[in-house]
Specification:
Length: 307
């Protein structure tokens, strides 16, 4: 997310600093600092302004910058740029409350050894502690989690605004986000989802005026399991739940995979209700689910055979 040199520059940059000033403070070459500042500008974490023939670097007003610089000032004995490289920020992102190594590994999709190494570095420096197998922050170091969250959100917003200035983030985690847009997005890493995606599975619904996209760097396509979860995140009402039920009835979706996706999106209860509804033919007490005979009629209208 941020290289060490970027973290080093962001830690010390003050309004009015030039590239030469930063190079002197950090004992790096001006060309090296210039590239790092350019990357920070691109990420919206600093900006530059002309002062005669000189270019001055100014921290942006992003909340992530404020949090990070406050941490550096208050704990100047800690080498945060060294600590926060590699997978560290990703691990911190998911430490929103006391968690085990396994829980963080599952949520972040990392190996346990990777998570354990990052947490050990934090524990050795007194930033986190363990209690009954769970890791939690010491003192006010929970701001590290807040920084990781704010930084990820800021970078997601930067990426979305570059292709859809009026777009809205509906859900996000460290790497991915689900967004609503008013126009089509044709950019690398953005995959159309929501009702428009149902056509890929031979289900055609009346579309709204909005379009929905899922951003992910390592994705090939939106699977039925992901689509079901995205649809519930967009609208958890009766109509959209019915659309998900039609999809689950029409396409062979591995239940284990679907439940894994539900955990990722925080939709365990919702997905469990849908699966029980289909298994029991409507014997679920949920006013957001149709009566079974109504759903049968809906399925017939769309040519979906119910088992």
């Amino acid at each position: 997310m941020l290289r060490r040199i970027e973290l080093e520059a962001l830690a010390i940059v003050d309004r009015g600093d030039t590239i030469s000033d930063l190079a002197t403070k950090l004992d790096h070459s001006e060309s090296y600092l210039s590239r790092a500042v350019g990357d920070l500008v691109e990420k919206g974490l600093v900006y530059t302004e002309r002062d005669g023939r000189r270019k001055r670097v100014v921290p942006s007003d992003a909340r992530a910058v404020e949090l990070y610089q406050d941490l550096v000032r208050q704990h100047s004995h800690i080498d945060f740029p060294e600590l926060l490289t590699g997978k560290a920020l990703e691990v911190l992102y998911y430490l929103d409350h006391p968690r085990t190594v396994s829980e963080i590994a599952d949520r972040s999709d990392n190996y346990r050894n990777t998570v354990n190494r990052a947490l050990k570095r934090f524990r050795d420096r007194g930033l986190v502690r363990t209690d009954d197998g769970c890791y939690d922050f010491n003192a006010d170091f929970d701001r590290l989690h807040e920084f990781a969250r704010e930084l990820a959100h800021h970078l997601h917003r930067q990426r979305l605004e570059a292709v859809a200035p009026k777009g809205t983030i509906l859900w996000e985690d460290y790497d991915d986000f689900l967004a609503q847009a008013e126009t089509e997005i044709d950019a690398e890493g953005f995959y159309e989802t929501g009702l428009a995606r149902f056509t890929a599975f031979d289900l055609q619904f009346l579309l709204t005026g909005h379009r929905y996209y899922f951003y992910s760097e390592g994705l090939d396509a939106i699977s039925p399991a992901k689509l079901c979860c995205h649809t519930l995140l967009i609208d958890d009402g009766s109509r959209y739940r019915s659309y998900c039920l039609l999809l689950l009835s029409h396409v062979d979706v591995d239940e284990e995979v679907l439940r894994e996706q539900a955990v990722k999106y925080g939709l365990e209860d919702e997905i469990d209700a849908l699966l029980r509804y289909l298994e029991t033919q409507g014997e679920v007490d949920d006013d957001r689910l149709r009566e079974w005979d109504e759903f049968q009629k809906l399925a017939a209208d769309y040519g979906v055979r119910l088992s």
